[in-house]
Amino acid sequence: MILCGGSGARLWPASRPWRPKPFVPLVGDRSGLQETALRAQGLGPLAVLGGAAHEGLISGQLAALAVKATMILEPEGRDTAAAIAAAAGWAAALDPEAVVLILPADHHIPDATAFRAAIADTLDAAQAGAIVTLGLRPASASTALGYIQPGPGDGKVKPIAAFDEKPDAEGAMALVEAGALWNGGMFVARAATFLDELRRWAPEIADAVGAALDEAAVADGVVRLGAALSRAPKVAFDRAVMERTDRGAVLPVDFAWSDLGAWDAVLAAASPDPAGNVLTGAARAPGSSRVLVRAAPGMQVAVVGATRLGVIAEPDAVLVCDLDHAQAVRDAAGMAGGRFASLADAAGWLDAWLRTAALPLWATVGVDTATGGFREALTWDGRPHDPRRRARVQARQAFVFARAAAEGLPGPWAATASAGFAWFEGHARRDDGLYATTLDPAGGLTEPEPRLYEHAFLLLALSALRRDEDAQSLVGRLDAFRHPAGGFREAGDHPFQANAHMHLLEAALTCGEADGDPIWARLADEVAGLALDRFIDPASGSLHEFFDADWRPLTGAAGLIEPGHQLEWAWLLSQRPEPRTQAAARRLFDVGRRGFDAGSGVIVNALYEDLTVRDPGARLWAQTEHLKAALALGETAAALEAANSIAHFLDTPVRGVWRERMDAQGGFLEQPSPATSLYHLYLAIRELTRFAGEPC
After folding, report:
1. Which of 43, 61, 210, 605 has a CA 20 to 30 Å removed from the CA of 310?
2. Which residues pair with 71 in a beta bridge?
3. pTM for the full model?
């Protein structure tokens, strides 16, 4: 079982959340995953456990070697104890007597023969009930690695006397002199032994993983673990089990090994030239010695007269470091979201991205030339992904392009907006003047029932197209959605919700600014009043998502609080002058900021009612609302954080698309870029350019 996790932050910028360390070729032409898979050939059936976000990377890299393996995919990473519990549980279901070999995907072991011989030496002890780990005889007194002290015993496999986690220099030297071994993080045991010890020492992990396996969806050699995995505490296997069990054992081994934990380790493991340099790609190092220089495709790097220097050049980021300080690269990686040093920098870059990449791409590839309708999504390499035609997409895209034309951005945006909306209107407008929710790509009705949410965006589109009378007519027809207790009732599973009202408020404010008709002020007053009186909890200042028919907030599992919506409401309410509304906007912003994960630099998906994190993943749209709200309320530091997080989501192979969903570990789910987010991006970037004073 190859564990394909970890972020590899010390190997930034080659290692990124969307392509972490196991998938990066560090020593030679193959990635760590590929080298580990080849090394494990012949030892038994192969499986790889990794994040669902990296399914494409895992399958693609194994296919390149013609290696077959079962994939076990985690909806979110929960550290090695949960990963090993899943591996053991899966193996035990296949064969109750199975012995499981756990291998990290990112280690460098050049002597595969010696490695396989060592694994053979562990099997008797493993069959007898031990959990055997491999202990590497130290090549140096490293302070970057953990140590295992073997106890006395007959035979090759020894009992474990103690673990020592990353000592200081003096402690590392004393451990080496005492015969301690490097902790290699590889384990061999019967599946039943792993499970027994996890149940004994980490029952919460065992229970959660067992439930996730019970919920798993299995098809075509892929096991997708269930959502129950999220209940497993995030704990390393060493901490959860090995430091506590009496079944731990270690096999001392002498073969060359490196965890490739930082760039100095990569230099030490690679084959240098006569000057001790390791150069990759179009890299040169005249007059230099013991330097590591990596130039990504399309880049040229020269390092002249340097010693013990690392230069890692990616298309969007460059690291220059003294290799004796390579461990500190993690800190640089933590700040790497800080592409922009100022809001002016952010405005310039994001505005150029919008004008020169996003708008042109979505006005060409993002339009079905056979019909004129707007496509639902594009892949990360800029290809159409187009399963349907939703009203919200057609309306948002028409709004964006019409708004771009009205704001004077160069391009054929007015024609794009008009043609796309005309196609949709011709197929989706009903006899009652409302619009169907979803069409198929050819224009056939697939969901004819109208929804309030979609019509809020249709109002925005009509206003941007300067069809003011049509917008006024349509808003009158929304009386069909009115609820006797006030506000509006939505179609579908959540009839009493804040979200549709939020976008109706946005439409009222936008349309009112465009044509000044009093109907819009009345609607804005009504929705804002409902938010202040019913949607927002007066005690916490938070805004709930779902309600009963009397507009009482739902609680428990249905008591959802989305930080992104707190921020979006804050942006909208900040546009109204009343002191009470301004105070509510400020409190909503503060609640939304409770969802800011400083480690990943993003606004997370959801909070519990006590404002603790419920869903640590993140979506792009919430970052745009963070930026808009921060700008509206003068929170410039938060605005800069938001701008940097947006740029992280825009790091794609083709400019103009985006990564929509981030998992809890900071990796991106491989999903097409939804067209719906262009509206969020457009508004946020235009707000930023105006705030920063960039030319419009």
Report:
1. 61
2. 48, 222
3. 0.62
